[in-house]
Amino acid sequence: GRxxxxxxxxxxxxxxxxxxxxxxxxxxxAEVLGVDTDEGVVQELNxxxxxVVRADATQEQLLxxxxxxxxxxxxxxxxxxxxxxILVASRLLKFGHPEIWAxxxxxxxxxxxxxxxxxxVISPEHDMGVRSAHLIQGRVLDFVVIDEGFALxxxxxxxxxxxxxxxxxxxxxxxxxxxxxVRRPGESWEPAEPGTVLYENDQVxxxxxxxxxxxxxxxx
Length: 220
Ligand code: ADP
Fold this sequence. Notes:
The chain is α/β, with parallel strands linked by helices. The chain folds into two domains: about 10-120, 3-Layer(aba) Sandwich (Rossmann fold), CATH 3.40.50.720; about 125-215, 2-Layer Sandwich (Alpha-Beta Plaits), CATH 3.30.70. The chain has nine helices and eleven strands. It has helices at about 15-25, 40-45, 60-65, 80-95, 105-115, 125-135, 165-170, 170-175, 210-215; strands at about 10, 30-35, 50-55, 75, 100-105, 120, 140-145, 150-155, 180-185, 190, 205-210. The protein has a six-stranded parallel β-sheet with strand order 3-2-1-4-5-6, sandwiched between helices. Helix 4 (about 80-95) links the parallel strand 4 (about 75) and strand 5 (about 100-105). The chain is elongated. The protein starts with 7 loop residues before the first strand and ends with a helix. The relative contact order is 0.11. Adenosine-5'-diphosphate (ADP) binds near residues 14 and 18. Pfam families: TrkA_C (PF02080), TrkA_N (PF02254).
């Protein structure tokens, strides 16, 4: 098969989503090729990504010339222009690229991308709405969906689980959740041990069914 160097990512469409993603990938040490039709966008990111090219990615010949297929991962960040998003995704799938990520702006858009065979479809507005609901309600400080109905949260250690070692609290049986990490005030995150005792102002990372982690964070 084709050699796809690890840590190389092509990002097509450098709007708010694509640009933020590309810059974060750069910060994490990836090699990033950015592609966008907009000259202003290209100029703005020039020098901040490994390479930035002004091009219309719906043109198959152009995608080939750019060697997009030789990148480890390809992300389609085009959103508002749904037709362009679908066209670029379908071209990449035609090349047989094994790891295509694409952003969807609506439910039907996501459905079409999934139906086409895009490997990872991201719905930022939808997911951020869900996540924000958990941040707004109660004491959840961070919320990450792991799977349908399953989540990881960061929250203050509820008083009900303070002052006793975690193994004595039997959180799995009593609340259906696991405390996986603890941060004392002013310190860094440490793995939770069976003998870990939580105190006021500690924060915890808790994993489990969404309703149960939410209920855990609401304990008094
Ligand atoms: P966001 O909401 O993340 O800002 P947009 O959908 O508004 O996303 O922006 C997507 C970006 O994709 C824009 O910068 C736009 O210029 C770019 N874009 C749109 N169509 C194409 C295309 N055919 N080829 C390359 N880039 C494109």
